[in-house]
Amino acid sequence: MKLPVYLYGHPVLRKECEDVTPDYPELKTLIEDMYETMYASEGVGLAAPQIGRNIRLVVIDADPLGDSFPECKGRKMTLINPRVEVLDGEEISRAEGCLSVPGLSEDVKRVEHIRLTWLDADMNPQEEVMDGFLARVVQHECDHLEGQLYIDHLSGIRKQLIRGKLRNILDGKTRCDYPARYAPTAKKGRR
Predict the structure, then answer these.
(1) Model-level pTM greater than 0.90?
(2) Which among 34, 96, 150, 163 has the fewest CB atoms less than 10 Å away?
């Protein structure tokens, strides 16, 4: 089932998420719904807060980026309770976008060398060192679990320059090609 994507300004996007327990109700169905929502929205990743759930759950299918970033080829992952450890390396600036911040793309500096620990969809522990754009995708999605958006990594000047576009999202004036849930402060009928 396609779920609405919660947009910038919605309070759920700013909450730190709770761990998923093995007895979480209908977890497999939720994971399937998240993949369906991500594909329908043409995203490569989706975190549970983006569908209104305050839990540490992420789905990623980075394969569409594989032609430009070989480390993304064939990478489809369900991340339950992921934890990111940033490893050494310089910060690299690359463009990022987000389904929860439609119509915007900004350069964000991130280290592209991480160690990720998580549980897979069957609750089996996993660990992997990741590099390049795949590491960036994982960090972006895991930021959502900490109540952060990629725009939080922008300089004050950049934030000022996009303030009007963010205000349009807050006011419900930005259209999406996918079902969306606007902030409670958005104009009536758009929520």
Answers:
(1) yes
(2) 163
pLDDT tens per residue across span 34-67: 999 999 999 999 999 999 999 999 999 999 999 9
H/E stretch holding 169? helix 163-170
Q: Does residue 100 contact residue 7 with C-beta atoms inside 8 Å?
A: yes
In SS3 terms, 13-59 reads as: HHCCCECCCCCCCCHHHHHHHHHHHHHHCCCCEEEHHHHCCCECEEE
Q: How far apart are CA 181 and CA 169, in angstroms?
A: 11
- What pLDDT score was predicted for residue 189? 46
Out of 85, 106, 141, 146, pick the active-site residue. 141
pLDDT-above-90 percentage for the chain: 93
Task: Return the sign of the alpha-carbon dihedral for residues 130, 133, 134, 139.
Answer: positive
Q: Residue 43 pairs with which residues in a beta bridge? A: none
Separation between Cα atoms, residue 159 and residue 27, nearest integer Å: 36
Active site residue 141: yes
Q: What torsion, rounded to 10 degrees, do the Cα atoms 73, 140, 117, 87 define?
A: 90
Which whole-number Å values give the CA distances from 83 to 126, 142, 160, in the listed order?
11, 8, 31
Beta bridge partner(s), residue 171:
none
